[in-house]
C-alpha cells in the first residue's frame, strides 16, 4: 500500500503546478467548476424563493426563504459525513469525488428544467448530496499530495482555495446576468453547464492522482453490507414519513439541520475518540480540534450570512447603481471572491516565506473569527437606512474584512483537519471540519428571523461582539491547545 509521502515524491519530483504537485491542477479545476455552479445557483436562489410570481419567483416569505437557504447550505456540509464515510469504508476518496460530480450535474438540471417547488426540492437535495460528497473528498485528496511535514501544504491549500474562488466569482456574475435578462431557470441552466464542464475536465485528469487517493483506509467488512444498507433505507423512510406528517416543514428546516448537525458532531467526535484504532497521540490531536471546531462554527454563522441577511440587505438597502445601470443582486456575492483571488496567492506566499515562523493554527483561527466580528460591527454606521442608502463602496470594504477573516480560517481549517486526523479517519476528520461549516451555515439561516430591517443595530452589534469574544477566548487558550496538538503547528 503506497503511502501519501511516496505518492507525493513520485508526483511532485517531475511535474509541478505553480511550485506544487502537478495533480493539484486537476483538483483545482473540478473544485473551481463545482463552486461556479454552486455559488452561481445560490446567488439567485434566495431571491427566486421570495420574489413574487410576477417577477418569476415563488413568492415565499423572506424569513422562510432565508431559512430554506440556510438549511440547504447546512445540508451541503452535513452531507460531507456521508461522502466521507463512503470514501473511508467503501470506495476511496477519488471515486466518491467522481460520482458526486455526476450527482451535482443532475441536481442543477432538475432546478433548470423542473418548474416550481418540485424542481427546488429535487434539485437542492441532489446538489446538497453531491456537493457534500465532492467537498470532503476533494480536500482529502489534496491532503494525499503532501507529506505531514511538507511546508508547502498550507500554500497548496491556499492555491486550491484560489480555484474555489475563481468559480465563486464568475458563477454569481453570469447566472445573475441571465436571471435578470431572461429568467431564473436560464441562470440555473448555466450552473448545470458549468458543473458539466468540471466533470468532463476531471474525468480526463483523474488518472494522474496518486494511488493514495483511491485507497480505502478502513474497509467495511462485506458481512456488514446488509446492515448498513438497511439503515440507509430506513433513514429515507423516516425522512419521508416526517415530511408527510408535517414534522419537517419549510419553516423549520434550519432548526432541524442544526439539530442533525449537532447530533452528528457529537457522534463523530465520540466514535473517533473512542476508536481502538486511534493511539494516544492521535487522540490528543483530535481533542485539540474541539476548540477549533467551536470557533469555526462561530465564524461561519456570520460569514454565511452573505447568502441570507446580506442578500436581503443588498436587495433593499444597497445602492446598486453603476454608471446608471442597476446591477443584479447576486453580483454582490462576487465581491468576496475577487478579494480571495487577489489575496489568496499573497497569503500562500506569506505562509511559505515564514515557514516554521508563521502563526500557529489556533492563532490564525482566533484572528479570523475576531475579524469577522469586526466586519459585522462595520454595518452599524449604515444601520436603519432607507432604500438604496448604503453605498456600494461600504459593502466592498466590509466584504474585504470578510475576506481577510476567511483566509485566516477556512484554508487553514482544511489543512488542520488533514494534519490532526488519525490515520484511520483522514476523510472523516475533513468531514468534521465541514460539520462546523454546516452548523454555522444552518445557524445563519435560523438567525434571519431575528433580523429586523427597521432596527438593525442590535442584530449586528450582538453577533459582532459574540464573534470577537469567541476569537479572544481561543487566543488566550493557544498554549494548551498547541500542547494537545502534539507537535502539529
From TrEMBL:
<keyword id="KW-1003">Cell membrane</keyword>
<feature type="transmembrane region" description="Helical">
    <location>
        <begin position="286"/>
        <end position="303"/>
    </location>
</feature>
<feature type="transmembrane region" description="Helical">
    <location>
        <begin position="36"/>
        <end position="53"/>
    </location>
</feature>
<feature type="transmembrane region" description="Helical">
    <location>
        <begin position="254"/>
        <end position="274"/>
    </location>
</feature>
<feature type="transmembrane region" description="Helical">
    <location>
        <begin position="184"/>
        <end position="204"/>
    </location>
</feature>
<dbReference type="Pfam" id="PF00854">
    <property type="entry name" value="PTR2"/>
</dbReference>
<dbReference type="InterPro" id="IPR018456">
    <property type="entry name" value="PTR2_symporter_CS"/>
</dbReference>
<dbReference type="InterPro" id="IPR005279">
    <property type="entry name" value="Dipep/tripep_permease"/>
</dbReference>
<protein>
    <submittedName>
        <fullName>Peptide MFS transporter</fullName>
    </submittedName>
</protein>
<keyword id="KW-0812">Transmembrane</keyword>
<keyword id="KW-0472">Membrane</keyword>
<dbReference type="InterPro" id="IPR036259">
    <property type="entry name" value="MFS_trans_sf"/>
</dbReference>
<feature type="transmembrane region" description="Helical">
    <location>
        <begin position="363"/>
        <end position="383"/>
    </location>
</feature>
<dbReference type="InterPro" id="IPR020846">
    <property type="entry name" value="MFS_dom"/>
</dbReference>
<feature type="transmembrane region" description="Helical">
    <location>
        <begin position="158"/>
        <end position="178"/>
    </location>
</feature>
<keyword id="KW-1133">Transmembrane helix</keyword>
<keyword id="KW-0813">Transport</keyword>
<feature type="transmembrane region" description="Helical">
    <location>
        <begin position="65"/>
        <end position="87"/>
    </location>
</feature>
<feature type="transmembrane region" description="Helical">
    <location>
        <begin position="225"/>
        <end position="248"/>
    </location>
</feature>
<feature type="domain" description="Major facilitator superfamily (MFS) profile">
    <location>
        <begin position="1"/>
        <end position="482"/>
    </location>
</feature>
<dbReference type="InterPro" id="IPR000109">
    <property type="entry name" value="POT_fam"/>
</dbReference>
<feature type="transmembrane region" description="Helical">
    <location>
        <begin position="430"/>
        <end position="451"/>
    </location>
</feature>
<dbReference type="InterPro" id="IPR050171">
    <property type="entry name" value="MFS_Transporters"/>
</dbReference>
<comment type="similarity">
    <text>Belongs to the major facilitator superfamily. Proton-dependent oligopeptide transporter (POT/PTR) (TC 2.A.17) family.</text>
</comment>
<feature type="transmembrane region" description="Helical">
    <location>
        <begin position="389"/>
        <end position="409"/>
    </location>
</feature>
<feature type="transmembrane region" description="Helical">
    <location>
        <begin position="331"/>
        <end position="351"/>
    </location>
</feature>
<feature type="transmembrane region" description="Helical">
    <location>
        <begin position="457"/>
        <end position="476"/>
    </location>
</feature>
Amino acid at each position: 500500500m503506497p503511502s501519501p509521502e511516496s505518492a507525493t515524491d513520485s508526483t511532485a519530483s517531475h511535474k509541478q503546478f505553480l511550485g506544487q504537485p502537478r495533480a493539484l491542477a486537476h483538483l483545482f479545476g473540478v473544485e473551481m467548476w463545482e463552486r461556479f455552479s454552486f455559488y452561481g445557483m445560490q446567488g439567485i436562489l434566495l431571491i427566486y424563493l421570495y420574489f413574487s410570481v410576477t417577477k418569476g419567483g415563488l413568492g415565499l416569505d423572506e424569513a422562510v426563504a432565508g431559512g430554506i437557504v440556510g438549511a440547504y447550505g447546512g445540508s451541503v456540509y452535513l452531507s460531507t459525513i456521508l461522502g466521507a464515510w463512503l470514501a473511508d469504508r467503501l470506495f476511496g476518496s477519488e471515486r466518491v469525488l467522481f460520482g458526486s460530480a455526476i450527482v451535482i450535474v443532475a441536481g442543477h438540471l432538475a432546478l433548470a428544467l423542473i418548474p416550481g417547488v418540485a424542481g427546488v426540492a429535487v434539485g437542492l437535495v441532489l446538489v446538497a448530496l453531491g456537493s457534500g460528497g465532492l467537498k470532503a473528498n476533494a480536500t482529502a485528496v489534496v491532503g494525499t499530495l503532501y507529506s505531514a511535514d511538507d511546508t508547502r501544504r498550507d500554500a497548496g491549500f491556499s492555491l486550491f482555495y484560489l480555484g474555489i474562488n475563481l468559480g465563486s466569482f464568475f458563477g454569481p456574475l453570469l447566472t445573475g446576468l441571465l436571471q435578470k435578462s431572461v429568467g431564473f431557470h436560464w441562470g440555473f441552466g448555466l450552473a448545470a453547464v458549468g458543473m458539466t464542464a468540471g466533470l468532463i475536465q476531471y474525468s480526463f485528469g483523474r488518472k494522474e492522482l496518486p494511488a493514495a487517493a483511491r485507497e480505502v483506509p478502513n474497509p467495511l467488512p462485506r458481512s456488514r453490507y446488509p446492515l448498513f444498507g438497511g439503515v440507509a433505507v430506513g433513514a429515507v423512510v423516516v425522512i419521508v414519513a416526517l415530511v408527510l406528517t408535517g414534522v419537517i416543514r419549510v419553516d423549520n428546516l434550519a432548526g432541524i439541520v442544526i439539530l442533525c448537525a449537532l447530533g452528528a458532531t457529537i457522534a463523530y467526535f465520540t466514535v473517533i475518540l473512542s476508536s481502538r484504532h486511534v493511539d494516544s497521540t492521535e487522540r490528543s490531536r483530535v481533542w485539540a480540534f474541539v476548540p477549533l471546531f467551536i470557533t469555526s462554527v462561530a465564524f461561519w454563522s456570520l460569514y454565511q450570512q452573505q447568502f441570507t441577511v446580506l442578500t436581503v440587505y443588498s436587495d433593499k438597502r444597497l445602492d446598486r447603481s453603476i454608471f446608471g445601470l442597476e446591477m443584479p443582486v447576486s453580483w454582490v456575492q462576487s465581491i468576496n471572491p475577487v478579494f480571495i483571488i487577489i489575496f489568496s496567492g499573497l497569503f500562500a506566499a506569506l505562509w511559505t516565506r515564514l515557514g516554521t515562523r508563521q502563526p500557529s493554527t489556533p492563532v490564525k483561527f482566533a484572528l479570523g473569527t475576531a475579524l469577522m466580528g469586526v466586519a459585522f460591527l462595520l454595518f452599524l454606521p449604515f444601520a436603519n437606512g432607507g432604500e438604496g442608502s448604503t453605498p456600494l463602496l461600504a459593502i466592498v470594504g466590509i466584504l474585504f474584512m470578510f475576506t481577510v477573516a476567511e483566509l485566516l480560517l477556512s484554508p487553514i481549517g482544511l489543512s488542520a483537519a488533514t494534519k490532526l486526523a488519525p490515520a484511520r479517519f483522514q476523510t472523516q476528520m475533513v468531514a468534521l471540519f465541514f460539520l462546523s461549516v454546516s452548523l454555522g451555515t444552518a445557524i445563519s439561516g435560523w438567525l434571519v428571523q431575528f433580523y429586523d430591517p427597521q432596527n438593525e443595530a442590535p442584530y449586528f452589534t450582538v453577533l459582532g461582539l459574540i464573534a470577537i469574544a469567541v476569537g479572544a477566548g481561543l487566543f488566550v487558550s493557544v498554549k494548551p491547545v498547541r500542547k494537545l496538538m502534539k507537535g502539529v503547528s
